Amino acid sequence: QVPYMLNQPLRYSSNIFQRFGFSSSTPQQNDKEVHEPKDQESTAHESNGEASKEDSGTEDLDLSKEDLVKLVFEKDELLTSKDEEIKDMKDKVLRSYAEMENVIARTKRESENSKKYAVQNFSKSLLDVADNLARASSVVKESFSKLDTSEDSSGAVPLLKTLLEGVDMTDKQLGEVFKKFGVERFDPLNEKFDPDKHFALFQIPDPSKPSGTVASVVKVGYMLHDRVLRPAEVGVTEGGPSEEPEEKSGGE
C-alpha cells in the first residue's frame, strides 16, 4: 500500500498546511516583495542626485558678464605669454642651429687646412738645402766652363762633369718632390714689388725702370699652395718714373 500512496497525486488543500503553521506562498514571491521597496528607494536616491547635479550645473553656468570678460581676458593673456615663449624657443633653436653650422664649417676648414699645410714646417726646413744645391750647381757650371779640357792630364774633368750632373739631378728631384706636395719656387725678377710676397733688402738707383721694380733677386721665394712659405729677398729700383694710378670707373 505504501508505494501506491506515493504514486498518487497530493490531494491536500492549503488549509491543512495553514493549520500546522506553514505558509502556502512560494519563497520567490516573498523575495520579490522584499526587493521591490529597495529598488524604489534606490531610484528615488538617483533621481534626487540628478536633480542636485542639475541645480549645481545651473549655478556654475549662471556667471555674470564681468566674470566672463575677466575669464576671456585671462585666457588671452595666457595665449600671448605662450606665443612669446614659443617665439623665444624658436629663436634659441635657430641660433643654436646657426652656431652648430658655423662650428661644423670652421672645423671642416681647419681640418682641410691642417691636411693642406701639414708639410709647411718640414718644407720650410728644406728650403736652405734647395738653396745650397742651386748655388752649388751654378758655381760648378761656372767653374766647369772655365776649365781647359786639353790640359787635363789627371782626368779631373770627367769627375767634375759627373759631379755637376749629380748635383743637377738632385736639385731637379728635390724640386719635383716640392711640387708634389704643393711647394713651388717663384723668381720675381723684373716684376712689381709686392710686400706680401717680396722682402726688400736694398734699393738700386735705376732711372730706366719704374720705381718699385724688382731688379735683383738674392733668394728666390717659395709658395705652399696659396700661402707664402718664404718671401723672395730682392733689391728694388728707385729714381725711375713712377707708375700712373689706375683710372677710376664712373668717369671720375
TrEMBL record:
Essential component of the PAM complex, a complex required for the translocation of transit peptide-containing proteins from the inner membrane into the mitochondrial matrix in an ATP-dependent manner. This is GrpE protein homolog. Residues 30-62 have a biased composition (Basic and acidic residues). Belongs to the GrpE family. Residues 21-62, 232-252 are annotated as: Disordered. It comes from the Eukaryota. Probable component of the PAM complex, at least composed of SSC1 (mtHsp70), MGE1, TIM44, PAM16/TIM16, PAM17 and PAM18/TIM14. Interacts with SSQ1.
